Amino acid sequence: MFTIAYHPIYKHPLPEGHRFPMIKYELLPQQLLHEGTATNKMFFEPEIADLAPIFAVHTKEYVDHLIHLTLDARAARKIGFPLSAELVERELRIAQGTIIGVQNAINDGVAFNIAGGTHHAYSNHGEAFCLLNDQAIGAQFLLNKKLAKKVLIVDLDVHQGNGTAEIFQNNEAVFTFSMHGKSNYPFKKETSDLDIALPDGTSDDDYLRILNATLPNLIETQKPDFIFYLSGVDIVDTDKLGKLGCSLQGCKKRDEIVFELCRKHQIPVQCSMGGGYSPEIKTIIEAHANTYRVAKDIFH
Q1: pTM
Q2: Which InterPro entries match (predicted)?
């Protein structure tokens, strides 16, 4: 049985115009419970994270400005959400959900965070709806606690994990792999340990062929003892912010490839949801729910 981090604050209400992306955080748990993919006892509500793991990844100056709501106007605009105490609390709980998740994954094989995947948060600033980089925080926590020696971050969101790349650019204990849309945000990319930039309209066949040719080799050469998986579903062809051409079934097959490799090599994996912005909420929920369904089939 895997665990799922979820807190009611994940669906924190935002001003009109920002609300749609947040609806999925309320509906996805309901769907998983309704269909029996998850049970109530699999969910846990994360506390607010201690600041020590946050400071291990983000600068104290930046975090202090977040907590005290004193970011300057330009820095706040880069984040994209109106800054509030509730929003900062939400990010601290998401970070703690991933920290607990990595520990649970070591025992259970896989663990989930309904939110997270905030890979655009840099060490010293946030951007694109990301304030704190939950998987980077989780990775450094593992290393600092000596629960892992080598970490592989598999970022398959349609947008490059620019913040994650910056945070770990000089850290040989973390290998960052991002496969993303070439012409998508961020338009100025950072340099991951491995970046694969896909052309607009990339189909299921091409996407899965490239992933199958890359990820098994990475695991063999890097020999990670922990994997973080950012499973953004904005690779589907209906996504408003993505430009790839993958189907729902192709997206599900992507999840199968990642989880089957983790299972085969007995490498624990923590999964954060990342993006999903199709016009119909049912498409977003179906794509995200597929990730949990696949994990249930493979790990249990």
Answers
A1: 0.96
A2: HDAC_classIV, HDACs, His_deacetylse_dom, His_deacetylse_dom_sf, Ureohydrolase_dom_sf
